[in-house]
Fold each of these.
Amino acid sequence: MLVNQKNDLPDACYLNMQSRSGVGSFRVEPQQAIRLRLTRGDHVHLFSQDGEQQAELIVLDSRGHTANHLLVSQSQGELSGSLAKATQAQISESRSAGQALAAQLNGWGVSDQHLSQAIQVNPSRLASDVETAPATEVFEVVDDLSLVVIAAGLSMQIEGHQPVTELSVQVKYLDASQVHLPEPLATPKTELRIPRASAQVYEVKAGEWIQIIDVSGKQCSDFLAFDRDALSQGEELGLDGVATRTVSGLNNPQPGIYSRFLGADMQPMVEVVQDTVGRHDSFLMACNPKYYEDSGYFGHINCSDNFNRALEPYAIKPRVAWPAINFFFNTSVEPCGTVFMDEPWSRAGDYVLLRATRDLICASSACPDDIDPANGWHSTDIHVRIYAAEHHFPRSIAYRTSPQELPRMTKTTGFHRRVTALTKQMVEYRGYWVASAYEGWGAQAEYLACRERVAVIDLTPLRKFEVTGPDAEAFLQFALTRNVRRLAIGEIAYSAICHETGGMIDDGTIFRMGEQAFRWVCGDPYTGLWLKNQAEEHGYQVSVRNSTDQLHNIAVQGPKSRELLSQIVWAPECQPSMDSLAWFHFMIGRLGGPEGIPIMVSRTGYTGELGFEVWCHPDDAEAVWDQVWETGQPYNIAPLGFDALDMLRIEAGLIFADHEFCPETNPYEAGIGFTVPMKSKTDDFIGREAMARQTPESRQRLVGLVLKGGEPVAHGDLIYHGRFPVGVVTSASNSPLLGKQIALCRVAPDFAAPETLLEVGKLDGLQKRLPGEVVALPFYDPERTRVRS
C-alpha cells in the first residue's frame, strides 16, 4: 500500500536530451519512475534495453484523474487499464527500492486507485534501441497529460537471474522548436535564461548551488566569479587560473574541469559538484574582439564585450579579453602545449553544478561564436538555476556506456556509508565512488594487513550480467575465450572476451549457476551491451540482463580470511562449507545462520592471497560489512583501498584494463594466454582465427621488471635496450615485499627472457635511464601456493 506522504521530488530524475530536432530522451532507472508532461500531438516510444523489462504507465489529466483515453496506441487504439502488479509487488516488498518508489509516486499524487488502472506494456512490444523503433509500439498524445513511466519489479534473490532493468523513453514533440529543460534537481531559488550571444550577472551566497545548463546542446558558456565582500571594498578578487592550476599541480589548461576553482588569494571560490559532460576548457580567454578581427570578422559580438556591459553596474573595470572557465568548450592540449578545439561534446540538457564557497557576483554567457565549431556553428541559449544552501546534491560525474545514450552519473555502493565513516579519500571508478586509501591506515598498512592478516575492500563497481536461456552455454562458448562447457555447476573460470581481431574487450569471471544459467562478472559496463548485441547478431536464444544494481560485493582477503568467514557464513547441506570451498568455486549460503542474510561467497580475489568475495543485495550491504568488520577485530582487520589493491595485484602479476590490455592487445600479449585453450577447445570463438594467425614467436610478452634504485617509473614509460625502445611499462609500484620498485611491462619477445637487462627511459627517454632486470611473473608467490591453500 502507498503511504500518505509528500516529497518535493523532481518530475524526471534523469536528463532530457532534447535535440534541435524536437526529440527528448529519458531514462527510467530500475525500480524507479519518471513523470513527463506532454501536450497534444506528441508521440512516445518506449524501449527496454535488454528487451525483457515490462513498463507500467499511469496517465493523468490536468486534474490528476486517470485518463488512459488521452494516450492512444497507434497499433491498438485506446488502451484499457489494469492493476500495476509489478509496482504493487515492489512496494509491498518493503525493501528500500519499494519505499523509495512509494515516496516518488506519492509525491506526484499517484494513489492506489491510479495504480489499479495502469497501462501494461509487455517487453514484446518494446524495442531495445532507437534503430529498431519502427517495429515497436508508438503512443500518440490526444490531449495534454502527465505520463508516469515505471520500471518496477521485485528485488532479485542472490541466486536469481531476473533483475529489474532500465527503460528508455523517447518523445517526439509536435512543436519541434519547444525547449524542454531537464527537471530541476530541487526547487530552484532563482532561474534565468541567458539568450544566445549575451551575458548576465547574478548574485550567489556562500553555500548556494549554481546549475549551468546547455539548453540545446553544443553551446559554450563562459563563467566569471568575483568575491562580493571584496568588491564592496573596491577590490576585484576573481577566479584565477594560475592559482587554480598551481594548487592542482598542472601547468596547462586541460580538457576537463578542476574539482575547485581558486581566487587570487589562493582560496576556493567555487567547487564543481556534478558534471554530465567531462569535456570543457579551464581558463583560456572568453571570446574577444581580437579573435574575431584576426579572423576577418570586424565588430563581431563577443563574450568579453558582453561581460564588460553586464559587469558595469558593479564598477568592475572592463577588459579587452576576460579569462574564464569555458564550460562545454571542447579543447585539447598537445604535449608541446598547442591548444586546438572542435565541436562541444555537450548534449541538450547537459549541465555543470557548482557550489559557491563564499558570497559571489557571477557572470555567465551564451557564447556568440558562429564562425567555427566552438558552438556547433550555431549559437543557442544557456539556462542557469540557483538552489538554496540547505539542499544537498551528491558529487558525481557522468559517463556513457554507448556514445548515444544519456549520461550516467556516479553512484554510491551499498557499503558507502561504512566506507566513508573510515575515510574521505574517495575516487571515481567506473561510475562508482570507491576508497583510494583509509585515514589512519594508508596504502602501506592496508597492503601489510592483506599480506599478513585480513583486509576488506568494496568491489561493487564490478559489473554483473545474468546470462540465461536455452543457448546460454553455447553462446558463452562462442563469446568467451575459455572453455565454458568444462565448467561444473558451482565452478568459476577466469576468461577474456575478445573481438574479431583478437584484441581484448574485457576480462572477468564466469560463474556457472545452473545448466543454462551463468553470471558474468567483469569491469567494463559496455561488455553486457556487447554480449547482447552478439547474441542477437548470431541468433542465440539467450537473455543478457544487468544485475549490478542487485548484487553488491566486498572482498575479504588475506591468510586469515577463511578463518574469519568460517565463523559467520552458514552453508546448507547441499552447498560446500567455507572450509571445503575450493579455489574458483562458489557457494550460496547465509550470514550467521539458516535465517540470516542470503549471500553468495566465491573463493576469488585480486590480491594473490587466500581470499573470498561476499555478494549480497545492496539493502543487506551494511549488515554484511558490520558482521565481517566486527568478527575481524581479533585479527586486526583493516579496510583496503584501491591504492593498496594496486600494489597487491602488481606483485601478483594480475592485469588491469587499459594498462596490461586494451582492444589492440590480445590475451597472449596481456599475459593471460592460459585463458585461450586453442588445443582443448575445439569450438570456434570470437577472435580465435585472428589469434591463430599470429605466430607465438612474434607476440610481445608481459614480463616483470625489478628496478635498481628507488626512483619510480610509471604506466606508459618506454623501455629501452640500447638507444631504441623495445617495450612499455604497463603498471608500476613500490613493492614492500621486495623493497624495490617493480613494473609489469610489455616487451618484444627478443628481450623477454629472465635476467635480461633493460632500462626505463625518463625525461626524453635518452637523458635519463633507470636500469632493471626482467623476472618471471608473478613477483609474489610464484607457484601461487598461498591463493590455493
Amino acid sequence: MRPSYIAVMHISSRAARSLACLLLLSTASYQPALARDAAVESNAAAQVPWLYRGSDVPPDLEWKFGELSNGLRYAVRKNGVPPGQVSIRIRVDAGSLYETDDERGYAHLLEHLVFRQSKYLQEGTAIATFQRLGAAFGTDTNAETSATQTVYKLDLPNATPSSLDETFKLLSGMVTAPTLSTQNLKADVPIVMAEMRERGGAAQRVQERMQEVFYEGQPLSERSPIGTVKSLQAATQDSVRAFYNRWYRPENVVVIVAGDAEPAQLEAYVKKWFAGWQVPGKPIPAPSFGDPVPPASGQGEAPIGRTEIMVEPDLPPSINYAILRPWRQVDDTIVYNQGLMIDALAQAIINRRLESKARAGGSFLTAQVNQQDVARSADGTFVSVTPLGDDWQAALLDVRGVIADALTRPPTQAEIEREIAELDVAFQVPVEQRRLLPGAKLADDLVNALDIRETVASPEAVLRIFRESKPLFTPAAVLEHTQQLFRGTVTRALFIAQEKGSASSDALRQALVQPVKPDQQVRTAEGPPVSFDTLPAIGEPGQVTSVQNTGLLGIQQLSFANGVKAMLWPVQEEPGRLTVKVRFGGGYREIDPKDAPYITLGQMALVGSGVASLGQNELDQIATGRKMGFNFDVKDAAFEFSAETRPADLADQLYLFAAKLDLPRWDKQPLERAKAAAKIQYATFATSPQGVLNRDLQFYQRGKDPRFQTPTPEQIDRTTPEGFRRVWEKALSSGPIEVQIYGDFEPAQAVAALQRTFGALEPRDPAPVEADTAEIGAPKPTDDAVVLRHHGDADQAAAVISWPTGGGSTALPESRQLEILTQLFTNRLVDAVREKLGVSYAPYVFATWPVDLEAGGSITAMAQLQPDKVPLFFDTADEIAQDLITNPPSEDELTRVVEPLRQQVTRAASSSAFFMQQLEGATTDPSRIASLRTILTDYTQTSPAAMQALAARYLGQEKSWRLAVMPEKATGAEARK
C-alpha cells in the first residue's frame, strides 16, 4: 500500500532513500489488532471499495470509491488545502508499452492531440480556456505519459459549482471525444518531434542505452514514450484513432478528484459527464511486458548477462548494474508489505555503510543500492557507482565488498534500530501534518498506486502498522531479505566511460564475478549515542531587549542585547509544520571575487565540515529519529541556513544553526569530496544547451562577475583547506543575524531556546563589503549575441534574450506588475514560437528582481530550438516586445494572465512559508512588511495602458542583451541577426 500522505521533509539521505523505497508500506506481526480494525472499517463501508479488493490493508475511508455502469472507476474526497482548489486527475491505463512497433510514440502524441481540440474545445483554445478559469498552463494544467499510463492533470483554483461543472465538461470532451484530425496531426507531430530533439544529448543517450541493456529481450528495452521519427512521421488520423479506440475506453480510465468540495458533489460531476461514455466492442487485455531473459550460459544466483561500455567524454564515469527478477502483480496485503519494509531497512543499512566509506575517502564518490519495480516489467535491484579517478575496478570492488559483508553477516540490532528511528519519524510527521495535506498530492499518490497496482492507506494506518511491525525487524530477517535482493534471473551492467579503451565489456564482466572479500570496516560502530546534552553551550543566555508587533498576522519581532533580531509567527492552523531560517552576513557581496570558487565549495561542504565536536557522521547520528535539517544557501546580500523541523526538535535545531556560527568545525574530507564532485560535474554542463545555460547564464547576466561563475576544474584545484577556512570563517562571523520561526510552536519555549542559542552569541559587526565589490553588474545592451558552445547533438541550440529592470524593496510593487507583463509575454511567445519554429513547450519568460540590491533584475525569454532558428527566435521576441510597447493588450488577454496570478497568490498565501519568504530581511528593512500588505493588488490590479507603459519603460530592442548556445560545429554567424 502507498501512504496517502508523505510529507516533504528534510531527513538524512539514507532515510530519504529508504522512504522512497518504502512508499509501499505495511506491517508485521500486526494481525490481531489490525484484523479487528480492518473488520470495523470494512463493516463501516457499504462494500469493499474497488481499490481494496483482494487486500487486507485498511481502506482510507476519506476516499469515496465508485464505478459507473460503463466500467469507468472514480475516487473522490474532500480536502481544503489549499482552500478553494479542486485537483482532478484522469488516468488512462495506456502508455508506450501498449503500442505496436508501428505505433511507437502514439500514447504521448495522443496526450498532445487531446489538448489540441475536442468536443467542447475548438482548435488551439484549451490553454486560454483554462486560464480564464484561473488555471495556469504548465503548473495547474498538465499531462504526462509513461511506459504504463497517461495522466491528465488539472488543479482548478477558486472552484465554484459553475466552474467545476464547466471543467468536468471540458475534460470529459478531451478524453472521450478528441478531434483526431489530419490537420491536428500536422500541427502536433512537429511539436512532438521538437520535444524529441530537445530531450536529446548525452544524458538521454545514456538513459536509452541503459534501458536497452537492462531490459534486453523485453518491450521496455525499445519503448520510450517519445517514440521514433519513423513512426511519428507515418502517423495518420486512422492509425492514431485505432490506438485511441483500443485503449481509451471507460474500463481503462479512472477519474480521481480531491479538493474543497463535498464528495457527493464531486461524484455527481463524474457521473454527469462520464456516465454517457459508451464504446463498442469488448476491452482488449493489456499486452505482455515480458520477463527478464536469463543468459544462455552463466552460473550463480544472478548470472551475468549483457555487459556494455558506453563512451561519453563529457559525463562522469559511472558503473550501473541491475539484478533483475520477473515482476508479478501481487495482492497488496499486509504480509506482502511486511517484506517490503524489511527490504527497505536492508537497503538503508547498505547505503549508510556505502556513504560512510565514501566520506572516509574511498575509491568512489558516491554509491547506492536501490530496489525498484520498473514499469511492471521487472523487479530489480540496482547498484550505481561513481568512481574517483581512473581505477574504476577498485571502486567497484570496494562497493561489492560492502555488499558482500551485508550478504554474509546479519546487521547489528543497533544498525536496524537507527534506520527504524529514521523511518518512524518519517511516518509520524504525516500524521502530525495531516491537516496540511494538499489535495493535489493526495490525487497524485492515488494515481501512482493505481499504476503499480497497489492500494493507499491513511497516515495513521501507516504509522500504526509500522510500529506494530517492529518485532519483525530482526538481524536474521534483514539478512534474509538482503540476500533475496541480490538474487535474480540475470545481472546486466553498463559502464559510462570518458575515454575509449579505458574499459571493456569483458573487463566489466570480470569485475562483477571476481571474488570479493567482505568489508567489515564500514559497519556502524556501536557505542554511546551522541547527545545534545554533551555539547558545549553557546554562551550565557541573552536578554530580549524589545518585543514589537509588526501589525501583520500576529507576527512579532524580537531584538536581543547582542543585536540578533528574530521574527516569530506561531500558526495553530499548521500542526506539526515548523520552519526555521537564519540570515547572516553579506552573501555574494561579502565574498572577494578572487575567492569566488569557495562559494560553490561552501554550498557543497560547509555544513558537512562539522559543528563543535560533531563531524558529518555525528551530525547524522544526532539527528537520528528527529526531524531536523541543515540547508545552506548563498544569496545576493545574505547567507542563509534553513530547515523544516518539529516543535519537539526546535531547540536543538536552533542550537545546530547557532553552533555553526559560533563553534564551526573544519574537517577536510567534506571539502576534498566536494572538490572531486565539482570537478566531475563541470564537464557535464557542456553536454547540452540547457547544461551550458545552467553553468553560465547567471555569470553573463551578472556582468561576468566572477562570484557567479561556475568554477572550472583548474580553479577548483587551486583551492586549499586553508583558503576554505579563511573565507568561510570570516563569513560565519559576520552580521547582522536575522532568525525566522514560523509554524507550530509555543512562543515562550521558542524565546527561551533563542536566548540559549542566538541570544548567547557574541555581538558581531555587519559584514564588511568592499566598495568595488558591493554592486553586482549587468550586461550591456547589444544586438550581437554572446555565443557559447555545447558538445551535444548538432540539431540542438538555445536562445536567450534579456532586458534589464531593477531591484530593491522600495519598488516591489512595480516588480509584481512586471510579473503580469512577463506572463503576457509568455503567452504570446508560446503561441508564436511553437507554430513558427516547431518547438515544444520549452519557450518561457521569467522575471527576476533582487530585493536586497538596487539593481540587477531582468526580464528574460528563452527557448531550446534548432540552430538555424535562433535568429528567428530573436526576431520573434523583438516583435512581441515592440507590439507590447506599441499596442496595449486586450482586456481578455489581460484576464487570462491576471486570474491565474490571483489564484496563485491566494493559494500561496494560505501557507506561512509564503509570508516567510516575503519577509526575509524585514528586521533590517521594515518596508518589506508594508509591501506585503499590497501583494494581491500589485499582482492583480492593472490595466492595458499600465502594461503598455511598463513595456515601454523596460522592453525594446535597444535595451536587450542576448545569448545563444550553439553546437560546436555551428558558426557564430548563425546566432546573429
